[in-house]
Sequence to fold (1558 residues):
Amino acid sequence: SATNLTSIDIYQEAEIGKNSLKSILDKLKAKFQVNFAYMEEVNDQVLVQMPESNDLTQVLESLSSQTGYSFQLMGKSVLITLSKSGDESKKIIPVKGQVTDENGEAIIGAAVKVKGTNTGTITDISGNFELGVPSQSAILIVSFVGYQAKEVKIGNQTSFAIQLKEDAKQLEEVVVIGYGKQSKTRVTGAISSVKSEDLSKYTAGSFDQQLVGKMSGVMVSENAAAPGQDAQIVIRGTSTLTAGTNPLIVVDGMPLSEGTSLNDIPASSIASVDVLKDAASAAIYGSRASNGVILITTKKGSKGRAQLSFDYYTGIQQSAGGIEFANAYESARYFTHARDYGYVSKDPANRSEIDDVATRKANGASKREFRLNYLEPYLNGEEGLTDTNWSDELLRSAPVSNYSLSLNGGNDKTDYFANVSYFDQEGIVLTSGQQRYNANVSLRSKLSDRVEFGVNLNAAYTKVNDLKVGGFDEDPINMLWATYPFFSPYNEDGSLNIGAQHQANGPEDGALLENPVAMLENTKRVENRFRTFGNAYMQLELLKNLVYKTSVGTDFSSNHYDYFSPNTIGAYRQPFPNKQAKSWEKNSHYFNYLFEHIMTYANSFGDHDINLMAGATMQREDGVSTSVSGTGIADNNIDNIAGASSFGVTSDRYAWTQISYLARVQYYYKNRYQLSVAARRDGSSRFGDNTKWAVFPSISGGWIISEETFFPKQDFLTYLKLRANWGMTGNNQIGSYGSKALVTSSDYVMNGTLQPGFAATTAPNPNLSWETNTSSNFGFDVQLLSKVNFSVNYYQSTTTDLLLSVPVPEHSGYSKSLQNVGSMRNKGFELELNAVELNAGEFTFGFNANLTTNQNEILSLAPGQEQILTGYNSSFLTEVGGPLAQMIGYKVTGVYKDQESIEATPHLKGTIPGDYMVEDVNGDGIINADDKVALGTYEPKLFYGFGANMSYRNFDLSFAFNGIEGRKIFDQPVMQANTGEGFAVPTKDYVNNYYHPEFNPDGKYAQPNMGNFSSARKNTRGNSMDVLDADYLRLRNIQLAYKLPEAVLTKLNLSAARVYVAANNPLTFTKYAGANPDGKVTANLEQGSVNAIPHPVVKSYMVGMNLTF
Amino acid sequence: CDFDLNQSPITEKESSNFFKSEIEIEEAVYGVYGALRSNGVYELGIPVIGEISSDNTFDEVPANDGGNYGELDEFTVIPSNSVIASIWKDSYVAIQRANVVLNRIGDIPFKDEYVKQNRIGEMKFLRGLLYFNLVRIYGDVPLIIEETTDVNAAFGVERAAVSEVYNQIIQDLKAAIEVLPLDGGADGRAEKGAAQALLAKVHLTLKDYANAKQLLDQVQSSGQYGLLESGNDIFAIANKGNREVMFAVKFESGINGNSMGSSIFRMCTPSGYYASGKGHNIPTEQLYSLYEDGDLRKESYVKHVEGIYYVSGKMDAPTTVPDDAGNDFVVLRFADVLLMSAEVENELGNTALAAEMLNKVRQRSGASEVLADGQVTLRSTIAAERQMELVGEGHRWFDLLRTGQAIEVMNKHFAERGQNIVVDQDNLLMPIPQSQIDADPVLNQNPGY
Fold:
């Protein structure tokens, strides 16, 4: 029985260097001047590799071993028959069997051959084969591309169930490249790939979290770890100063909207993730590719009977980090020290810390120079007083569960995959969480031998109970830094304790925040998201080897955010009951659509293989958002904007369009010399009138040295390939109207009526264009012992024409101007190592590791501009010759203990005892900004991941680590807690180590001083003690699984079942004192700045199962 | 499907298509007035610097709001101070908007040329006013009087000398006086009298009493302005556009999504008096006791509140959201003109006339008459009268600078309050914002920072 391979398969297989038997025979006919005659049972569509020999006998042997057919040379003719050689017409034993993969899926077209003979066949659509063998001592060799060949002894058996394992070498793996696929051996760019099996070891709702530590060159920061938030992905270093850093996400060929939420793509529907890291690979995506391209392939159907699988896990999540704050007794001592010294230090000659309130008042003390009125019992050390750990009150152990049901099947015409899943996550912060419903369907069908169509459709509905809304008094985690431990979240009767801080702290102006638990329990902040994206395509084989594919893709997203804060709670400085209720609502949606036409031609000519691709795409996105804030809310009966009487409305709409032409030539000679040339021409509405179009070319080459005849065949070094490439990509993330000078509203009131005013608010730039990234990559791939793969890349990428929002002198009337100026470079090494299926009896072992270094340098800024100094206290320096956003600050050498030592040393104006002594770096006797020293960058010197998996019988155990070295963070919440200013709750570290003449004369931190917080102290914020080491090593996941044995499966009527226990992030090794060492702000020029306490990374413990029916 | 690569903004206007008609120029003019409402100009920056820095008030919690207001109160201002930064930025934004109108209006036909000339006068008045603020706060400042069309041209522009800035201010105000109407026609538009009064104040600052006198006399004889019977009515929200107010920056509560009010009440009022109050600008007990008993301004302009507080009576608490106070900010009013007149006459030796002007203001409040008892005595009487009458209106600090009294008065003020703070010459100018020196080091810093 013949397999019915179609043009589509031919096209795909042709990619990996094979052609149909018939086409090979046509070539051989010309080459050797022979005729081929074949019997009708022979399938001329079977795929074979073109034999390279010039000896006809050898060629025929090769074809015979590839196909299992017999090739008999008779004069100028060759007779091809099914598995019968003329001289072996002895007694034949008929045998039959089925070949399947590890999942029990039929393998179609596997070669089944009798060892040492030319007898053989291939399996049919159901994986079945029938064959005659010469004797019981014969051995069957079963092989299939991408799988390990298997030998089976015949014995007295006549029916066989043969299972093939996937080939450990991985070199035959197919990777997804832009607008096509390629065998891994033919990849000449820098592409990292992960399959779903590896991703799913980290159980998570969203795949971005699963990518952490998995690939070299891909740094995933969980800087926003709250439910429903996206991680930030940076590929090969930040390559822009002020444009966006989002990689382009392409799902099944559909480029999604910029900065798209990855949370809408359920991990359970992903088959593989391939990341195009270098410009040569990514250039085919042109102006959107300079931050890298993430290609996601969703799961597809496979031929065979319908298979239902159910995946489930459930677990408990906890916080994996946080700032350690002082307890109530320590805080009481600190606040008192701070307020006393604040009062006394303003006039030490006439003031004393024993002065009572009346005396202090008479001396002109301001409110914060009085002691907090309620601390006496704490200072006296009375036991049993309120001592609330607010982190414990806000955080909780929170359940998470995921249910996923998939159906997968198909016949020789049509296949399908469908998945529905439900992800239910409570957040580790009170009231937060998300519920997400996903459905996705993939369908492919062949209408005829030449026509195929397919649809991929994904839909997600997510309801997020959000945490962040507006100011710091509405972000519960961030409220921790100013919520005092002297207060309880609940009253004795269990009700919420409202306004306690306001009442107690009012007279002395202590922290005036609302109880964050009450704030959370009473406010509504719900986001509803609906997202659907996907594409449909039609593929036609116009001529032999020439395929035309047209597709239409869409991405639609609709968001509704609903916020309400009642008047039953207070807010920062607005005590209950004076606070007004407020409401806010935002509705937004966008619609993105794409038309694409791609023509592909693939063919072989002797030693020459060629693949050509050309296409055109058009994409457009339209977005609308309206937000309405409502005030004047009479009562709390309507908890949304409908209850308001006064409204503020803002409306925003945008559209962008892009038209692109693309082309690629891939050429392979003898399969070992590889060349790929590609170019894309993009036109975009985002750019200035003078610069709408640009071309992004690339060229890359590869050389498989180990295929050379001169390369000694050996068992140790089994594969060696060199790669080199060059290419250009662009960055267009400047918003839809970045090149336009806009006129925005600035209204006025005259005669009591609103007068619409307008003013130019952005500076024009008709020459605004793409950021261009030019990169080169050199690498080699090595395989040792056919088991261990090792890849090294060196890359250098230079971004020119940076889309730089240049701080301009404000006397121009503008603060910033977007310009194409300046350039920066990233360079580094990437190493990837993996080994699979190292066997020792029943024990198998595999491991993987990756490591990336990146070095960033600013090559130039705006003409005449040497540096950009920005951020808190001008602490972030981006200067020519230095790295992006280097943190700078004074180097603390000690704490001044008296006025004499201040006079005796260079010091900042306004320095008083208790302030920091800083180093006069340039030795000029003056302390000023010139004495600030470099304190490091957020961008780590290197990051890495490693892991292993091992199995013994039905058990398997896997784990993975990831880590970062050389990262620094200017954590402002920690700084606030360590300044001694006396408003924030101090850290444990600070209360134990601050300088105080009596309490701790050797303290290393500045003396607590509220009210007289000196200008010197303010100017030294962001000093060498405030920039923290944020290196970490994290056990990212560990999983132990058990596969149910065959006997049990049969009983349960299951075809496969697996149960597991797993932990995510159970261990983190770090010295970092902040809440999350991945925390950062989004502005690149201030990366490394943490200006609000971030949501901690979550650790979780899970049990789960995978059942296949 | 539309894949046109030429896409224009949908919810915003494009500069290249704007400023093309009379209507659009009028919108741009409102945009300039709108810039006066910004945080760094009259919503907060100018009033705050005029009051907090002076001896009128103290800061209840100097460390609050990052210490940015407390630094002004205690003379510990550092170059990264946010108030200083926003005054600079927002003033230049407003100046650029005025420059844009002045640059574009010439080519635009107006139905009525007279209106067009009025608008030109309004823009020059506003530009003069803004530079007058800047030069008094920072000293030398970059002098930009052309529309910025290439922002890069702003690099390398040095600070212009104070005298050069004043020359431009005088030139602008003179030009404004030429074309502005006696009556602006709408409550809030600049008019001739306002420009005259402002120019008079500039002359007074430069000690050019003769020119000041001429302008002040013209204002008084114009018949456009007068004192209200009750001082309370000047600032009342219900009484906007009254005849004492010559120029005010307009705020309105409860409209346009509560976006047209100001945050000054919230920032300046003690937290114990208003729930969201930040207490940055609380009248001192010394100020309160300046008013003699029977002076109606006591308990009206400055109210005593049980406990330690005195609060300004010239503002009303917002009833919508905390940052939505509805009082206008009065920049120039007739009582100020009379008091300037008194000062000018006194300096010119006409003490009797000076006392007469002074008493016009005092009579309204039921304060006792003062006598023309010598130029020197009268000089301090006038200064005290300005402090009492104009309290809370952002004049005091500039008056102290103008009369050269700042150092003496402030050091006395701190001594009386038991605060160990000494003011010196360097404190009289504010620093150039650090962000500006970072952006272009060609801007040098004022001494002492």
